[in-house]
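User: I'm writing a short methods note and want a consistent example. For Melatonin receptor type 1C, I'll paste the sequence; you return only the structure tokens, no commentary, since I'll be parsing the reply automatically.
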Amino acid sequence: MANLSCMESLSRSNQCLSAKSTSPGVAATLAGVLVFTTVADIVGNLLVILSVYRNKKLRNAGNIFVVSLSVADLVVALYPYPLALLAIFHNGWKMGSLHCQLSGFVMGLSVIGSVFNITAIAINRFCYICHSFRYDRLFSRRNTCLYLFLTWMLTALATVPNFLVGSLSYDPRIFSCTFTQTASSSYTICVVLIHFLGPLAVVSFCYLRIWTLVIRVKGRVRPNPRVRAAHLRNFLTMFVVFVLFAVCWAPLNFIGLAVAVNPTKVVPNIPEWLFVMSYFMAYFNSCLNAVVYGLLNQNFRQEYKQILCALCTPRALFSQSSRCNTADVKNKQSPAATNNNVKEVNVFRGGATQTLF
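Assistant:
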């Protein structure tokens, strides 16, 4: 019960936070995981942003949301994670109430921003593949910027209620100022439904429709195994990003949902190791997307190599890559982070020829 009382109020926590100290071995392990996550987060997401900036082939409407997702992942490595490391080293929060509230707010912006950007990417892919005739109008440059602004506006609005409910406080089990699941049962349920399960349902619907269309038309396109493999690899890139996010964040959200439904019975029965592991799984997700792009997307992989080589000559680091031969690509490019040798195939749907990819 010491942990629960610690999460009630930061102003009374200076003595309470040390009520249950973490063993040195566990603290060292958490610090190691957080250091690795922070470094990988910063390096990986900077590589993604620089890749899109340098490579004209990667600059399109869909990749705006990919860059936005990288920014959402990057901000936690620049502020909340370093503060959590300081808390681990000091075995308690020594940075004051203001930094605690700001750290929790930035963490919320990152988490909600990530899930909203993943949702936006899925909608973008759905419109491009399933409604390709209207895609150019729906995702014009002006509309895409409007969607991006709307995404972050909704993210900010979704994070502000934490201050009204008083749900941001320091949790000594994870050495972080974060969302307190026991602050309000009704608010916790709303958070899980609106910020996790709702977007998950939208993204699942979009990708299910895409999979259905791909399977339905698979036998109607001319046989070309190389093109088909490229299409599957392209589509799988963002699908894997979605799956990894869902897997990494599901344990924490389901724990929160269980706590909100019956806090008096659930909270004492949740093993501390499970709670801590669920949080650090969620933290670890912020460094995975860049790895997925590098493994599954040839354009990103090539840009990663060029950027790392360009570190020896800093002037070349921010020069735009012109080896993409984009002038040779006459067909519409795939909008998201899935531009591996993308070609167009015509699919007969309802008596009309439609561009699928």
